[in-house]
Write a structure and sequence with these properties.
This protein has 15 helices and no strands. By secondary structure, the chain is mainly alpha-helical. It has one domain (32-309): Na+/H+ antiporter like fold.
Length: 314
């Protein structure tokens, strides 16, 4: 279990950075607006650089096959989780201001920030490559269906904003880069690597800062809500387990491990941003993100340990 122990140690270091971000935000060393600035830097600078670095590989049929498998698994878990989440929300009947946020935190995980960071910790550049391929369908989905969840209740709904936005355009551009022959010049690749690696600590600082910006009173109040615990169970445990049937196809361990773990990332902070943008209960969404993020410190190593045990029998 040395592999598991090493991963747990590295994950502890990762979450320690989030704890630092939390304390700095509570002490106002990180001022108001920090989350917006960190998000802008990660989304527009470091994460794109890390993704491009990870996808800087020569075109091959094997890569196309891997992309097919990862896209299929991603689409499968998103469609099934969306169906289960929609049914669950209708059954529990939350307040109108919480309905879309609850469905969103069940379906969408922090795959772009924390997911890529975990992939990088485990498998380096190969992990980033697999994680990026797995996230391709996810990114299209979160930039379309997630927006639709909130915008469908708005007075005016513009499909152009759903399908023509920077997230979708950037994702399609990344796919085009992957299928082109050849690789980037070494100096460009090195620059992308140097620029992209801060994504890992910056993402954890952002998570800590987001948690630190919440009132402890509000957080305690929301944590008593059973639906948030149910959402965390769905996101962290149930939905990644939906991928277990794919073990029958003898996929490479690293490829399946990335899909399995990334599918079990905690709820995406983006959902609370969408809730705020469309006038819904952003604090409820943020509490769901906070709860699942805290619980993920236990669930992610547990999923990885479970995967190591299962793989030893196959």
């Amino acid at each position: 279990m040395n592999q598991f122990a090493q991963f747990t140690q590295e994950l502890t270091l990762l979450y320690s950075i989030a704890l630092i971000g939390y304390m700095l935000r509570k002490k106002d060393i990180l001022p108001d607006g920090t989350e917006r600035i960190l998000t802008a830097v990660i989304l527009n600078v470091t994460l794109p650089a890390l993704i491009l670095f990870g996808m800087d590989v020569s075109f091959s049929v094997e890569n196309v096959i891997q992309f097919g498998w990862l896209s299929f698994m991603s689409a499968f878990v998103l469609i099934v989780s969306s169906t289960i989440s929609s049914f669950t929300v209708k059954k529990v009947k939350p307040d109108a201001q919480k309905k879309n946020a609850l469905e969103g935190i069940m379906i969408f995980g922090n795959q772009g920030f924390l997911g890529i960071a975990v992939c990088f910790l485990l498998f380096g550049k190969e992990g980033v490559f697999y994680g990026t391929l797995f996230n391709f369908i996810y990114l299209l989905y979160i930039w379309t269906y997630a927006i639709y969840l909130f915008a469908r209740s708005a007075e005016s709904f513009q499909w152009k904003k759903v399908f023509l936005n920077s997230g979708v355009i950037a994702t399609l551009t990344g796919l085009l880069l992957m299928i082109l022959p050849g690789t980037l010049p070494q100096v460009v690749s090195n620059t992308l690597e140097l620029t992209g690696k801060p994504t890992v600590p910056l993402s954890m600082l952002l998570i800590g800062s987001l948690l630190g910006s919440m009132s402890l009173t509000d957080l305690k109040l929301f944590i008593k809500d059973k639906t948030l615990w149910l959402a965390s169970f769905y996101k962290l445990i149930l939905f990644p387990l939906l991928l277990l049937p794919f073990l029958r196809f003898s996929l490479p361990f690293e490829l399946f491990a990335v899909a399995f773990l990334v599918a079990g990332m905690p709820s995406a902070p983006t959902i609370s941003m969408y809730a705020q943008s469309y006038g819904e209960d952003a604090s409820f969404a943020a509490a769901g993100v906070a709860l699942s993020t805290i619980l993920s410190y236990i669930s992610i190593p547990a999923l990885y340990s479970f995967l190591l045990i299962i793989s030893s029998f196959t």
